[in-house]
Request: fold
Amino acid sequence: MVVHVVDGTYELFRHFYGLRRFNKGKDRPYGAVVGVLQTVLQMLEQGATHIGVATDHVIESFRNDLWLGYKTGEGIDPALLQQFHSLEEALEAMGVVVWPMVELEADDALASAARIASDDDKVEKVCIWTVDKDLAQCVRDDRVVQMDRRANKIIDADGVRQKFGVEPALIPDFLALVGDSADGYPGIRGIGSVTAAQMLNRYGSIESFPAALLGERGELALLFKNLATLRTDAPLFDNVEELRWRGPDRTFASWTARMEAPGLLERCRRLRKTLNGTGNH
Reply:
């Protein structure tokens, strides 16, 4: 089986600003939510059977206590922010497993889910649906891969090496050195991506660097590495069968009415009927 784990927060942003190009600033209350549900349902219609969606229930996490400049919810459009919790509830009603994260981030949930699923011998492949650079550290050969929906591209371990110049396991070290503006930490001044890759390929992880290489900046680099290192120990599920989609629950009809998206309900019903007809329960 193939397990799909989806970055729900990224998808919500993607659909919200995608709609903004056409709605002239008149945001539908559930517009982005409907977009994410359509994306997940399309995955199911195209053959996905086991799916989990990670969300940031709140934007802040334990990392904000480690670095004051780390990303917060400040500046997020209120029309987008108010759809965060609706997305979680609507996905659950559609029968999709959701992991709303509070102390940890959605990226940590994706990393944890990928680790749990890849430890199961029944799982042939884990697909992580996000373009976030952080998740490249979770890639393992062609068994755990990153999916770039925009470019319609699969990024395996070779793809990570081509993109960043280092092994997937060294991505936290790489990001610590070059920084990650999306997450709000600057990296080490004067070290760009080429230099960072050269240093890491020569010496290995930051902990293995000669003391003189970073000097007083070594401690800061280790702090940034801690920020960049995704946690993989979130207890999200015990068995991958918990991720199997079995159809929407009774509340989904009221959700589709509220969202003015009756087509979602009909598509779910058709798909569940098809799956039941093939014995995929």
